[in-house]
Write a structure and sequence with these properties.
Ubiquitin-like (UB roll), DNA polymerase, domain 1, 5 strands, globular, binds FE2/S2 (inorganic) cluster
């Protein structure tokens, strides 16, 4: 199969039963995406497939043949020496991660939200993030961080309104 991950094209052989999460973590060593519940309940494994959020633990890798996937590793600015994205800076500044295990999935879900809705209300944020659980209970800080990123508090001056 062929799959593009964070802008890089890969030719891979996968077992019919392999999940997209296993492809990312075990074959591509992209371990930012986390395995927690392994049954579609927590959102820690959230990635984008052709722009839509999916739980990669429930997504068959073979079904992603020809797809473009974005993971948390792809959020950092390409060509900017790994500079963090505004959303990542906002999560740090607003202390939105404690253990951090849910954070990659939270960031991808928030990124997808801001791509579709650059000026979300708090209700929009809560609705968009409802599939991502945080056992540490940092929900208020996650909402604050997403609101801050949407408001441009952490935008790169050289890229203007890059909220996500
Ligand atoms: S690990 Fe996939 S939804 Fe929890
Ligand atoms: S920060 Fe620990 S599960 Fe969310």
């Amino acid at each position: 199969m062929r799959i593009t991950v964070n802008g890089h094209l890969h030719d891979l052989t996968v077992a019919p039963s392999s999940t997209l999460l296993e492809l990312l973590r075990d074959q591509l060593a992209l371990t930012g995406t986390k395995l927690v519940c392994d049954r579609g309940e927590c959102g820690a494994c959230t990635v984008l497939v052709d722009g839509a959020t999916v739980y990669s633990c429930l997504t068959l890798a073979a079904g992603c043949d020809g797809a473009a996937v974005a993971t948390v590793e792809g959020l950092a600015a390409v060509g900017a020496q790994g500079a963090l994205a505004p959303l990542q800076k906002a999560f740090i500044a607003h202390d939105a991660a404690q253990c951090g295990f849910c954070t990659p999935g939270q960031l991808i879900a928030a990124h997808a939200l801001l791509l579709q809705n650059p000026a979300p209300t708090d209700d929009d944020i809560l609705h968009a993030m409802s599939g991502n659980l945080c056992r540490c209970g940092t929900y208020p800080k996650i909402v604050t961080a997403i609101r801050a990123a949407a408001n441009g508090e952490f935008s790169n001056p050289s890229t203007g309104s890059d909220a996500a």
